From TrEMBL:
It is an enzyme of class 1 (oxidoreductase). Keywords: Oxidoreductase. This is Inositol 2-dehydrogenase. Residues 2-110 form the Gfo/Idh/MocA-like oxidoreductase N-terminal domain. It comes from Actinomyces respiraculi. InterPro entries: Gfo/Idh/MocA-like_OxRdtase_N, GFO_IDH_MocA-like_dom, Myo_inos_IolG, NAD(P)-bd_dom_sf. The gene is iolG. Its EC number is 1.1.1.18. Residues 128-246 form the GFO/IDH/MocA-like oxidoreductase domain. SUPFAM superfamilies: Glyceraldehyde-3-phosphate dehydrogenase-like, C-terminal domain, NAD(P)-binding Rossmann-fold domains. Belongs to the Gfo/Idh/MocA family. GO terms for molecular function: inositol 2-dehydrogenase (NAD+) activity; nucleotide binding. Gene3D superfamilies: Dihydrodipicolinate Reductase, domain 2 (3.30.360.10), NAD(P)-binding Rossmann-like Domain (3.40.50.720).
Amino acid sequence: MLNIAIIGAGRIGHVHARTVAAHPQARLALVCDPFGDAAESLAAEYGARSCKEAEEVFNDPEIDAVIVGSPTPLHIPHLLAAAKAGKAVLCEKPIALDITDVEAAKDELDAITTPVMFGFNRRFDPSFAAVREAVAAGRIGELEQLTIISRDPAAPPVDYVKVSGGIFRDMTIHDFDTARFFLGDIVEVHAVGQNLDEAIKETGDFDAAVVTLRAASGAVATIVNNRHCASGYDQRLEASGRDGALFAENVRATTVRLSNAEVTDAQEPYLDFFLERYADAYRIELSAFIEAVEKGTPTPTTIADAVAALRIAEAATESARTGTVIRLG
């Protein structure tokens, strides 16, 4: 049984708390958040303790592992402090808002010996994972093109967007990791940003984008993002190879279809948001983390993966703002 603490009692903290509390090999022991009664309220739901200062988490001998869901600028400091205290770490994406922060902490990050895993949960989605396994097994021959569609049902609050680091660091970074998961090293990035929402435009960010990534193998990934989608949380993936194609479609609450005089094959809307759509992915991700900690095996996602995704996000941001293709060294 792994005693786990969560830092950050916001939306992602609630997701992880629910996942940890339901896992047979984990126990939610402590929730930390400095603001108001956020930690106390969340901890009370699951019979855990609460605190306001992260140092209490790192100094607590009962805690075996820490899930870092604090604001992004605190990811590296919290990750390092937990690791230095001998705690295993599952850290949310992105690793930082700026690659210079990673470079400044490189020596300390390289010195970490405790397990550290990053929350790229889409690798663990059963449908996406099944497509990736089929690609690896050669079911469609050499992978030539990958298409990833990710549209949110509605934009987040403007106050969140202002501090999110931009759509490519906050939203598309999941898709960048997915592309690397399928294609390997990315060598070229071209992004086109769109301003369809005036409120988000005023923050200096984009609310929609199309990104093309070229892999070292020559394969190409196309990523389509939008902060709003009338039909719900649109999450699809297509892998096309020399000998065939694989498709992961949207998930709905049921498989019921309606046909009548007005419609044919009408289905329910897509699941409403990531909490529902990726519930299984978060559960499987946590299981993979616990297994790595208990068996002493490498974590499925690493600091190197987090850094690579951030570099792509920064290249996409530059490309969208300059209209140029960015080559990665």
